[in-house]
Amino acid sequence: MAHTNLMCNAGTSQLAFIDIQARLQAAMSTDAMNEVVKNCNTLALAANLLEVPVLLTEQYPQGLGNTVPELSTLLPAIKPIEKNSFSCMAEPIF
To answer: Which of the chain's termini has less CB crowding within 10 Å, N or C?
Structure first.
């Protein structure tokens, strides 16, 4: 069997943050949401450093709010993909 390189490559990778929104925090404990935001921030900083493209989605932002400020401030140049379907795959731009 041929050896397969399983390492990530910035040129062929993308990072997607899916619906990290303020109103969705209510469905999680504060500790869990803090951990999610902390981990997302780490990933955002790493993506920036490694020049990995980033996608950001927001599920119905008019009703659920925007991406949490702790994350959106790290991604000022990223325009969120607004979606009304639960799945990102139903959103053509995604």
So the answer is: N
